Amino acid sequence: MKKLLTLSMLLTSIAFTAFSTEAKTTAANSVAAPQIQIQVGQNRRNNRRYNRRARVVNSVRNVRVGRRIYRETYQTRYQANGRVTTRLISRVYIGRY
Question: How far apart are CA 96 and CA 62, in angstroms?
Fold first, then answer.
């Protein structure tokens, strides 16, 4: 009878330790897992900073000054508030007329 009682106590203690170690590993995994959410792309659509960007257009034209011909490159920016700014980027000498 003593042997049976000792064997049953031994088996129950092994079972409890197995359950407790299993519970510890699942708890450790849930704590160690990062609790952040990463979203890639499509987030800029609702951001006001990107909706207010200026539209930029580069244009090229040939200009005659006296008998000389130049190729001028302009940058035109259309701001969100309606302002238009024009800037000369480059002027390249082409030749004579």
Answer: 12
Task: Give the chain's length.
Answer: 97
Tracing tokens 């900073």 back to the chain, one arrives at 49
- pLDDT tens digits, 50-80: 667 789 999 999 999 999 999 999 999 999 8
Domain ranges of the chain: 54-96
Q: Is the pTM of this model over 0.70?
A: no
Residue with tokens 């480059």: 90
The label of the residue with tokens 């002027």 reads: 91
- Tokens representing residue 2 in the block: 């003593």
CA–CA separation, 77 and 83 (whole Å): 8
